[in-house]
């Protein structure tokens, strides 16, 4: 795949929801001198700490979050991802750079505008649910609306709607102590949705859950996004979670974004050895699409064989080719874009060029 990896993608026609440019967050004495001094900014973590006593959690980060997308920020512990998401709403104050939401400068917001941002425009779902133990599910979900000043009858009606939306019908009058971990996380999700935010910010919300419950919650996020098309920024250290949820993924290391792209771009064309090592064990056929295995169709191949959409995965193509014994056609709008055969599919799975795979086959 020859797909470019721009750290700052071009804005959509509607403009980005969040636009971040040259963002730094440095902890320590006289932190502002670090981004202002290229020599200090170029030091690694140990060198910077030795020279200045400072730690740079976020280093010169730029990206846009497009309307309606799930934008995933992932990295190992200490990579800066949670600090980054908190900078978006100034739960942590950035050291330098710019953050804008719908073109409005977040860093220049006064207390009132910042409160409005956090209450109405960007809702956070944390790893620790933060439910009020003495309140019922319904009243926990309605809490954000209560803070907004919505009347009791209206907020309970809206809360009931979102309790149902996240699959907790019949549990409205239970307290958090009567719920499982997955059910409590659903309450946290419903509470965030109830205030009707423009953006949902998730800070590793499922990392404390058991694997099966975690998978259920991932599928719940996918379902809600499909139904509502709401913009989401999702923080995780789990690559499989990032690949499952993300329209685009920003992979962080030591406070920097080392690659930003679609799941297919990151798995199919790693930017460096660090990313390559990160995605080494990913089943490529589950992520890459048939475009990565496609070759031009010969004249007699355009009308025969199973038809696949360009977005079909290589795994789906393998099943089709194995089932029919024929090469598969990649078809869009009634036009054959190309063909995938055994050699091309083998090349994708093995991570080698199609010509090499053909020779092996």
Account of the 3D structure:
It is a single chain. By secondary structure, this protein is of the alpha/beta class. Among the domains are: 1-102 and 200-210 and 232-282, P-loop containing nucleotide triphosphate hydrolases (Rossmann fold); 285-360, CBS domain Like, CATH 3.90.1280. Helix content is 39%, strand content 21%. It is built from 17 helices and 13 strands. It has helices at residues 33-36, 38-41, 45-52, 81-88, 111-121, 137-141, 143-148, 152-165, 181-194, 211-228, 239-245, 263-268, 273-278, 284-287, 314-324, 342-350, 354-360, and strands at residues 18-27, 55-65, 70-74, 96-101, 104-105, 122-126, 199-203, 231-236, 248-253, 256-261, 307-308, 328-332, 335-340. A six-stranded mixed beta sheet has the order 6-7-8-3-9-10, sandwiched between helices. A four-stranded antiparallel beta sheet has the order 2-1-4-5. The chain has a three-stranded mixed beta sheet with strand order 11-12-13. Helix 9 packs parallel to helix 10 (211-228), helix 15 packs antiparallel against helix 16 and helix 16 packs across helix 17. The longest helix has 18 residues, at 211-228. The protein is globular, with a radius of gyration of 23 Å. The model is unreliable at 1-13 and 354-361 (pLDDT under 50). Residues 43-279 form the ABC transporter domain. This is Glycine betaine/L-proline ABC transporter ATP-binding protein. InterPro entries: AAA+_ATPase, ABC_osmolyte_uptake_ATP-bind, ABC_transporter-like_ATP-bd, ABC_transporter-like_CS, Gly-betaine_transp_ATP-bd, P-loop_NTPase.
